[in-house]
Amino acid sequence: MNKVILCVTEKNSVAAEVSSILSKRSYSKKQLAQYFNEYRFIHPAEEHGPNQQYVVVHAQGHMLELEPDEGYEWGNCAPSDLFTCGVHFKENAVFRRSVLKPNAAETDVLILMLDADREGENIGYDIIEIFCSVLPANTLLDIRPANLPKIRSPTEHILQHILSADHTPAHASNARTIIVRRARFFGLTYPELTAAIYNAGPIDMNVVDAVDVRQFTDLRLGYSITRLQTDKLRSSFVDYKTGAFKPKKTISFGPCQVPTLGLVHSNDLLSLRNHQSSSFALHFVCNPHPLQASSGSVFKELANALKLWDSKPNKREQAESRGLVFTPADTSHFRSYLGCLPMLKSVFDTLQKQNRVIVVSAIEEKPYTIHRPYPISTLDMQRALSGRFSSQNIMAAAEALYTRGLISYPRTETKSYPSTYTISYFKQITDKLAHMSPNISVSCASLAEYAHTLLDDSPGNPYKLQLPRSTSMCSDNAHLPIHPLACPPCSLTRCEELVYDHVARSFLASVSPDARGTRMTIHTRLGEHEFIATQNKLVFDGFRRVFRGSAEGVEGSFTAADSLDLVDSSADIVVGSKFSVLRAPYKQFFGVQDLHIVNPTDTDENGLLVSSIAWDRDNHSLVIDLDSSDDPKQVYEEGNQSSDLLKAESNGDTSNGVSQFATELVPLPMKESALLLAMDQHGIGTDATMSDHIALITARDYINSNKQIEPLGAELLQFYKQTPMGVQALSCSYRSMLEHGMLLISEGQLDCKTVHDDCIRWGMKLYDNIDSLQVVRVSGPGGYRVMAERPRKTTIKRKRYQANGDNATSCKSRSKEARPVRIRGTFMCCGEQCSRNLLTGSCSACGKTFQIPRTDGVVIVLKEECNRCGLSLVTITQFSERIVRICIRCRTD
């Protein structure tokens, strides 16, 4: 009689693929219940005897759900009772009744083929407990040499049907025994699966305990604090779309979601605190090929040279990428607008005399090497592709590719292959890619061609297959790096195609030669000022022939972001070579913390008044800039920073000649790749769950799809920051403590009950802090209020000044004639009392109005701090008389 081996996988797709591979597509399928299938086949392996009958079934994630005991429902107990109440596991009745029970009597070996991570280990023990509940009398599950778990308490029925190293039932000597084994595999291929079954070992109970600690603490903290803060806040929150109160809305607390929200909040703080005052940049874009003879027209006038040379960013970027760009070697002249004007005039006068031709005065060359990239982990894949799709969609596509056997297990922290993997393994994968069909996608043909090149062993081929680089810094010792296993037999979805292409290119790059090049620094002088241009001549592209991602291990000062192959190697650049200047753009980049206030009352669009208020870190002073010549449309982008970074919102009140403008500083949005990296650094979630946490706080309206905090998230931040423990929850300290404890538990270095008790004590302190808050009042849609990282709206009033009976029209005509120069770091306007406008500010909290002086002023930083954002207050002093005390971030008294 054939031995029956019951294999349990985590998903139906994996069960189908495992059955298809092991049976060589000769299996029978039966539907046991809705969403549950069974696969049967005969496998001639010899590990458990010849011609074993395999029965492959599947779970659907966790089959046991942890919940409080009866009597602890919402409203039946105090929220604090949930810290000490009894809890139990509720099993999936359909899985128990329709999947495990029919196979309990005939099974001889139970193989747990769950995902090779912590959650997979814990799900495996869930299945063991459910299987014990359906076993016939006098039948045992043998999990030895593993022990029973320490956090969860097995029921009496489970203890009667389980045999472990620390527990033996009384009737064990006469009982029928079912052996339990844990198979760990990293790819759905025949060699991988058969090796996993052959080498199947015991379940790791340390890992089961680690996940149990997280489950039990998450339940107790989540249930108790969610009920407490909902009772305190639910009457204060409104539906920001309709304005109606939402008394039944649950304001949930999640030990992973709250620190994720805190990371988004920290990014907002960082983008505002790392203030950069307005900066200026001058560069020349030259033809990359030297001139044979001097030619070209001259600059007509300085004003034309100061204009941006093209209004279309895409054309501007294309021209710059094709040209040779010279920038000033000394940037000290660009610290202020006035300071750079003499230098600009001197440079442009020299260019005019030279007929727009510059001469190379010196050349420096230095070789560099870019090492091939490491194999990729889950985080690398998510960060690289998050600009095209959300991390959740990326992981869903990777899971789909994995279940079809196209890539290895996509949830891994490992970036190195084991030392036992030889070059033959990588040749085998490369050979599969070399035979990829070109009809699947556009990139398949180029990948197959490059794979053929790597396999070419001829002496003249510089592209020889290499062993991947290894590192001990990134490894979970449980999975292989993500790499392709097979070629797709048919077309893929757009996201799947992107994921597979990235995985394939990353793999080919990891086994390719390093790239080599020469970095050339070109010097030229225009009068007394020196300019330099840097070009990188690619001598050998190596892995960059197939992969354009970020590179590591660059020697010298060269960075991976630099362009490698913009210079034609045939262009001979020597000392004395001449280049024609194609463009000479002069740009002004506005700082992150500048406020731009636009007056829309003037009928002449070209006469719009733009003003900015900022903190000059270099001079330690408050900056007020006034200029009527700037068009607010000419706020251009710097790098990837969008001009949407600075927004001005107007309320349009123009009664009695007074215009009021509510200005609000919007923090720089956080990229999902940056958020994923921050979560990984702080130990929030795992590579398998980080994308889920981001999606969850987005679904709860804490942040939006651009990773900007929504009003509900802002009010929660305000709520948590009123307590010391709430600040800890936002700062990721608790989650980092838990993740570190789980790691030590998994390695057997720390007792799981110690970590569990520490986490519960921390949660009770947070509960007490929140409970001690008296009356919680929150504002409507909008700002951060208490934190003031997204400052409260401060009203700026501009009053038309009418002297000697002049009317508003004459005042307006004078304003066009007198165009003041921007002077940063002082409060002068034209160097004298400004007769055009009086600038006043009013505090939106108390309504107090103050006048901002126009003559020379002194800013003194006080020791006092703003009660809203914690930033030092300053006083604006004129003629030794105190005018106003103001917070430079909140703009309030």
UniProtKB/TrEMBL annotation:
GO biological process assignments: DNA recombination; DNA repair; DNA topological change
PANTHER family in alphabetical order: DNA TOPOISOMERASE 3-ALPHA, PROKARYOTIC DNA TOPOISOMERASE
A Pfam family that the UniProt record links to this protein: Toprim
InterPro entries to which the protein is assigned, alphabetical: Topo_IA, Topo_IA_2, Topo_IA_AS, Topo_IA_cen, Topo_IA_cen_sub1, Topo_IA_cen_sub2, Topo_IA_cen_sub3, Topo_IA_core_domain
Keyword set, alphabetical order: DNA-binding, Isomerase, Topoisomerase
EC numbers for this chain: 5.6.2.1
Protein's UniProt keywords contain Electron transport: no
UniProt-annotated stretches for the region Disordered: 630-655
Domain Topo IA-type catalytic: start-end pairs: 204-767
Biological role stated in the UniProt entry: Introduces a single-strand break via transesterification at a target site in duplex DNA. Releases the supercoiling and torsional tension of DNA introduced during the DNA replication and transcription by transiently cleaving and rejoining one strand of the DNA duplex. The scissile phosphodiester is attacked by the catalytic tyrosine of the enzyme, resulting in the formation of a DNA-(5'-phosphotyrosyl)-enzyme intermediate and the expulsion of a 3'-OH DNA strand.
UniProt record similarity statement: Belongs to the type IA topoisomerase family.
This protein's GO CC annotations: nucleus; RecQ family helicase-topoisomerase III complex
Name the record gives this protein: DNA topoisomerase
Catalytic activity: ATP-independent breakage of single-stranded DNA, followed by passage and rejoining
Record domain Toprim: where: 4-149
Top-level taxon of the source organism: Eukaryota
GO molecular function, one term: DNA binding
